[in-house]
Structure formats: C-alpha cells, structure tokens
Specification:
29% strand, 26% helix, alpha+beta, 7-stranded mixed sheet, Aminopeptidase
Length: 155
C-alpha cells in the first residue's frame, strides 16, 4: 500500500534510507531532517513495515527534487521504487511543477523513468543548500539527472 508518510514513519524511513547509505547507494539522512520534511515522503507499507520510500522536495515554482528513493533489499525488483517515484511525480504535477531532478548513484533506474543526465552546474544554487551538510561536500560524486515534463503531462 502506497501512502503519504506520517510522523510515526520517521524512524522506519531513516532506517531504510540509512541502510542503503551504508552500502554507498545513497546519502544518509539524519532523523531530524526526516521529521522536518515528513510531508515530502511517500512510503510503501507491507504487513505493517515500511519497505519503500521516496521524497518530493520543492525547490522553486517549477523545480523539485525526487530524493531518498529507497527500497528494502527483500522487496527490490517488484516495481516499488517506480511506484514511489511516480507518486512524487504525480504530486509535483498536481502542484504545477514541470521539472524534476535527482542526484543519484543509480542513474539507470532513473533513466528508465525518463530522466536524462545533466551537468550539476546547470541546477540553480538553491539546490545545493543541503549539500553543505554532506560529508562529501564539495567533492560530490552523485550523478545529476532531470526530467522535464514540459507543458504536457506524461501521466
């Protein structure tokens, strides 16, 4: 079942995201940041357990980040990552957002969802406000990708 995250999901989201971060597949998120942004997240719950998550973080009137896409390893390959990312895209489109970007270590997944690789330098500086907290700053090795939905929805 896919749904918006609630405050009671905060620790489960952090555990899932940080378990993949420990494997070098994404950046870790502190619990305080997850709670501050809990309304950004969609989760997939299976038998009372959070098994997939993704967040939509609005940066500007026409730009949002899809972030913290994580699927429990036991549930990978079942389309759950695609589902939570699509939920983020759908909500963004409902808000009027047309451009979505990701910073990722798994570009092939996002390429299948219509994202294209770009130079990080083309993203506005506002995007990098979280980066100063990252242990890899300023030597970021994530791949920047964008999906421009233009004027026509691709739902």
């Amino acid at each position: 079942m896919i749904r918006k995250a609630t405050l009671t999901d905060g620790t489960a989201i952090q555990k899932l995201v940080n378990s993949l971060a420990q494997k070098g597949l994404m950046l870790a998120r502190p619990l305080s940041e997850i709670y501050e942004n809990i309304r950004d997240y969609f989760v997939v719950e299976e038998r009372g357990k959070i098994v997939a998550v993704a967040g939509l973080h609005v940066n500007w009137e026409d730009l949002a980040e899809i972030k913290s896409v994580a699927v429990d390893r036991r549930y990978q390959g079942k389309g759950l990552g695609r589902e939570v990312v699509q939920a983020c895209l759908d909500e963004g489109l409902d808000l009027g957002i047309k451009r979505f970007y990701v910073l990722t270590y798994v570009p092939d997944f996002f390429k299948k969802m219509g994202f294209k690789r770009i130079d990080r330098a083309v993203l506005p500086h506002k995007v990098w406000t979280e980066c100063v907290k990252c242990p890899k700053f300023p030597d970021c090795d994530e791949i920047a990708m964008i999906r421009d939905m233009g004027k026509k929805s691709k739902r």
